[in-house]
Batch of 4 targets.
Target 1
Amino acid sequence: MSQSFGCLQWPGSGRMVLRAGTASRKFRQGITVDFQVAARDSGEVIVIDASGRLTLGAGGTKLRDLLHVFVSKGRKKFALNLAEVTLIDSFGIGELVRSHAIVRTRGGELILFRVNKKVHDLLEITRLHMLFEIHADEHTALGKLRERG
């Protein structure tokens, strides 16, 4: 493994993961408590798989940090998989909005897919479903981003 902008990167795999301390151990054991993100390159789109709790104190800035890495390298299209995100609090809502702003400021797009019912309900209550484009599956999300050129 080589270190790259605070991310673990597996050479040749196109996969970057941000992990920290005990959260990594729990993540490897399949017990995701803290927030984790893993990115994979899908051509012109970066797919980010998120899991755990996007809450204050649970490593919530990892998403924003990862997006900073990619936008600084000129990447503009991101699809965020929220299927394994179990909880989002007000801090997490702020992180989603800040992440969206980081990408939009650089002329990019961030869309969500596989949003579970609990998180989708929260996005509706906070009216953020109007800010984020949300798709049911990865194939549809990637297709929408790719057709926009």
Target 2
Amino acid sequence: MESKSASGYCSNCQRDVLAVRQTPNHVLHLLLAIVTSGLWIIIWVLVAVRRSAPRCTNCGNKADTGLVKHLNNLNRYLKDRNDQIARVRVNAAVEEASSSIPSEKIDEMISRYIDRQNAEKSIKQSASQTPVFGRRK
């Protein structure tokens, strides 16, 4: 079997890694099909259709490639930055791409989210500033 490699994200290693996927050796299968008068073509098709998952070269677990990899990278970036507004914009962009939400609706969603966050902060601040009677220090 031959192998193809690409970059991917390993959830076990928690980083971008080299991902390797096994592919069939088509020259070998062609020779076997010729020797067996075409009977090997059935096996060749079954092997060619079955795609193995890309594996991390460090730990051997399945690695995410393509869109899943990019979404994982985006999620890691957002967690590192702890930027709530960016998360809302990314979620709104994903919703817009999937369901064609107008941009006015996205702006409204963002402003409602920010207002809700500000209200929660003010409630927490006012609760921490109000004295509690009967509490022993």
Target 3
Amino acid sequence: MLRRGFPMRRALLATLLLAMSVGSQAKADVVDIDFDFSNSVISALNGSLLIPPAGSINSSSATFRFDAAPTLSLVTAGPASLQNLTIDATVDALIGGVVAVDGTIAGSQVGGVAGTLTGGLGQVVFGGNLALDLSVFLNCSPAILCAGVGTFPISITGTQTIGALATIPINSINNIGNATISASIVITLGGVPATLQLVGNEVARQQVPEPNTAALVGLGALALSGAGWVRRRRR
């Protein structure tokens, strides 16, 4: 006659074997690094419009996601992505001392852009376009002189593909808390070519377990719970 505890022990053994199987297939974790880009610069109109000083970047941030060594926040080469880029800027420019351009630029990233962190951990090579949900309004005065600057007013709302991402250099990526980014992205705002000079500093870093790793943790907890139940039944 089988002992009452045998089915439970058999189930516990099966759980442990499954946990080992999941563990053997577990992927590396990923790490999200948040950057503050409020020190960035927007250049337009062949450099005649620079924000700042002709206005300000009120806020700007983004998250870069990388593969990471399990249980650590150290980044490893491999897949990467840019997510959640946002920018909020005020324009207050006097071009040539006579033409005033003012307004606002706001945008938030739509979707992510995939890339690859190279083996030297010094740059991310992207191959996709950057799309933002934009709200832009720029005005110009006096109107008689604005034709030589551009077509005004500029009003943009909705999702716009503003440019292609190529290569973004990253410095000190595994010096936790001190990673920096300095990169130029060519963009277009309402037909006006511009450059977004990203200047970013790391402000936060968070480990994000891959699904297999999370499953392994859950199965381990279940196995420990089962082992405790068996011990209590024997008392």
Target 4
Amino acid sequence: MSIDKGMFNFQGVMDTFYGYQPGKDDSEGRAQKNSFMANMIQSGFDQQLAKGMAQQQSQIAQSNMTLAADLEQRNTSSNMQQEFNYGMQSMGAQYEFQNQFAENQSKRDQAMVGKVGQETRLNIGAQGTEDRLTTVTQGEQTRLNTQTAGSEQRKGMVTQGGQDRQNIGSTGEESRKNIAASGDQERATLVAQGMVQSGVIGKQGEEQRLTLADQGDQERQTIGAQGEAARLTNTSSANDAINVGNAAAENTKDVGSSAARDTQGIDSNRGNENRLTVQETGNQTRLNRDNDATNTNRTQDNAAANTIKIGDANALNTKDVDSNRITTTGMQERLSQSNLAQEGRTTMGYQDNLEAKKANRQSARSRSMARSF
């Protein structure tokens, strides 16, 4: 027996119903059981009929599907056969039409070629006739033009000869006038050029003398500044030697010798620098003088050329311009030399200060070393 009876206890209900035996006086029970039996028999009979009917319907459906597939295959084959036949007939008709069209086109082309050839031959004949007529006419016109051109050329040569003779006479006369005027201008130019050169030479000598005087002043000032710087350096070295002698008696000779060597090296370096500065100043002065001489010569050449073209008035103006330029150049040279000397003195002052500081540091180191001994 089943332990789990379920929600409805179906097994128990069936057992109770099958085990129930109605009595002789239980007409309701007998009727119910008979009704149940009749219903069961009816349900089994209906089930058997349904199963037979389903089998029969399945066979009929399969037969219908087989018949439908056969009909569809036959219809498709027939349609494809008809389409193939129609396509072949259409292709045959197209071929016939195209062949007929090609034959007709060939006939038309042949007729067109013949017609074109005939027209071309007619055109060539007409063109030849026109060309011959044109050549005849052109020859006649060329002969007429040649005759006319020859006549005009002869007339032109006669006229040109007369004009050339007149031009030669006029050119000779003008050339003689130009030669005479050029001689007058050249003589006047030579006179004016001599005057300009005399003034330029005098002005140049004056500017050179002023420049030499300023250069001498600047050199004397530079020499004085060098001497003063040398005296200051020697005084500083002597004081350092005295201080070192008081700090350490045993090391006085060594420290004094080192200070003397430093002083000599400083003086020697300063002398070399001063000599190089003076030498460079001389080189620059000579270069400036050479440039002034070159510029003066160029100016004189330009003044002479301009004097030849424009005459005495422009020659005098050139003289004034050259004098002013030389004066300005001399002033600029003197200012340059003065500035150069001043810069040299300033540089020497800075060098003296640096050397004095260096000497002080050396003196301090020497005293420190003496104290350490």
